[in-house]
Each structure stands twice: as structure tokens, then as C-alpha cells.
Amino acid sequence: MLTEFALTTLARLLSGASVRWIDSQPDTCQRVYFANHTSHLDVILVWSALPHYVRTLTRPVAAKDYWDRGWIRRHIAKSYNALLIDRKQVKVHQSPVDMMLQEMGTQHSVIIFPEGGRRSEDGIGEFKSGLYYLAKKRPDLELVPVYIENMNRILPRGEFLPVPLLSCVSFGPPIYLESAEAKPQFLKRARAAVISLKEIE
Which is deepest, 86, 89, 116, 147, by most CB within 10 Å? Predict the structure, then answer.
């Protein structure tokens, strides 16, 4: 059975990931870590990049249709306490954002991927609206941008076995939804915050 220690060790061995905190530090305050998305390993990689004391309070948000398929995936998702969202049965009275906020309560943080689906090419897609509504309903949350480098090459879309390359996970300074800031402007600014981490050497 995969334990938390085994899972984080495996993720680091597969990716060779280094971790950078740029103008921010690990903290147990409630946060939304939002990252670019190119690989199914992204979920585990960002989670494993956090210190243990932060990791225990942080739940990655992942697609139920993928991580609930087969006992191995279910066990891995359970090991990192994933919050599985059913993308095929979204209901008006129980939106994914409401589910996340309910599961977060007053203690937990989450890891999300605002692009939605994975991208096989370089570049970061437009952000969907979930991050905006999380910030709007919980303006106290710290929104921490995360940039994952090289995972689309380590585990290309459609491949099962990873290619041994070095990756890097960069955490940036928190942002917040500004007063009266419109959704398109906020999502553009949040996306730019992730892109800016790619440009920092």
C-alpha cells in the first residue's frame, strides 16, 4: 500500500523536482494553490512539494472520472486526501466551487488547475471561472500561483511511463481578488501570475 511518505518519495524520484518559493513561504493558513496543468502527475507533484505540516492540511482537487477508476488510482487519491469532483454530474445547487468550500471548512487548503483539462503543448491556457468564484466567496483565502516546469515532457499526454527529466515547482506570492475587480480581469491577472514564475530564473 502506498503511504504518504512512499507517494511523495515516488513523485520526487519520477520527476527529479526542485522546489522554489519566490516571495512567499510555506504556511498553514488557508490557501488556494493554482497551477498550470500538463500531466496527471501534476496533482501529486504539487502536493508532494509542500512540507509535511502543510501537506496534511492541503487537499488536491482532481477529476473523479480519472482517479476513481480502478483500485490503484482510488488508493493513491485516498493517500493524498484528494477532493474528487465529478465533472459529469455538476448540479446548480451543488457546484464544484461550493463542494470545495464545504470540504475546506475553516482549516484546509486546496490545489486546483484553473485551465481545466491538461495541455499537451507548451504554454498556459485560459483560466476557467472556478478560481474567481472561490476568491469571490472566500476573499480571505490566499491565492498562491504555482508553475510546474517540464512535466509535459516527463509524462506526455497519452503515455504511461515517465521519461527521466528534471522538473521544477515554483510557488509565487499570494494574490487576492481586488474590490470590484471583474472576472475577466482577475482571471487574466491570475494567469499572468503563473506565467511570471516561468520567466524567473
Answer: 147
